[in-house]
Amino acid sequence: MRGGVGVSVCRGGGRVPNWVGAWVRRGERLVGLRRHGATGGGGGEGGGIPKLEYASSKPLKKAEGLDNWVPSTPGVYAVFDEREELQYIGLSRRISNSIERHAETELEKMHSVQVLEMPGASKDSLQQMWKSWIESYAEETGNIPVGNMKGEGQWVLNRPKVRAKEEIKLTPGKGADDLLVPMDKLIDSLVKTKRVVAFIKGTRTQPECGFSYQVVTLLNQTHVDYETVNVLDEFYNPGLREAIKVYSDWPTIPQVYVNGEFIGGADIITEMSEKGELVGALQEAE
């Protein structure tokens, strides 16, 4: 497909690089291959896709912005330019979000995309598949995609901008010895008076662990108002890091509460987002 951002298909006489076949074979062995929006024949019996073809799709870009065909599931993806030359191989917990963020800086290089969905995949499984794609390309071409090379041409996913909002401080900052109300009572009052509260490590603009960053990112994407509390702030929230675990009877942080109810940590929030359930759950709180 020429003249716009979309995906073209190599069929029949079109040249398909050998390493694409390796993707298919490795994908079949590891998790099974699924392509989105394939057009034309060659599907084979039972919807199978012949080897040595790469994906077709609806256009990646419409007049008003990116199309929404790209799945929001975890997986591995490869981006090609209009000459069908590979630009970048990436992995993502949410492929559609990564494609949108790439488009902010690399849109002119984004003509086609190969997508391998891996629902429920672990971080190790995603990295293993991503590495196999990189290795297959390198074996065929003797190099790695230009966007994966370190340096000026490297594709970098900038962290999305977040709304600046002050974190909630549970005390005036006089220390644990001067607490007039037990910490569990302060937690209980907070989660029951605020619609959505996220207890995280760090702040919403500077999370201090990957799981907290993931939760803040997903909450920001919902555009629902929420509060954050920094469990590492011993000056204003002394003892909170352990107290919140006791309060929720949940051993890890971050923790998200909606209308006084604990709904989950990073894994559950991510799963809700992938299933399209997070926005609805948070909007019910408003």
Automatic annotation (TrEMBL):
Looking at the record, the residues that make up the Glutaredoxin domain are 196-263
Signal sequence region: none
Keywords per UniProt: 2Fe-2S, Iron, Iron-sulfur, Metal-binding, Redox-active center
**One cellular component term from this protein's GO annotations in UniProt:** mitochondrial matrix
Q: Which organism is it from?
A: Chloropicon primus
Q: Which PANTHER family match?
A: BIFUNCTIONAL MONOTHIOL GLUTAREDOXIN-S16, CHLOROPLASTIC (PTHR10293:SF45), GLUTAREDOXIN FAMILY MEMBER (PTHR10293)
Family statement drawn from the similarity comment of this UniProt entry:
Belongs to the glutaredoxin family. CGFS subfamily.
Q: Name one GO molecular function term.
A: 2 iron, 2 sulfur cluster binding
Q: What is this protein called?
A: Monothiol glutaredoxin
**Cross-referenced PROSITE patterns, in alphabetical order?**
GLUTAREDOXIN_2
Pfam families the UniProt entry points to: Glutaredoxin
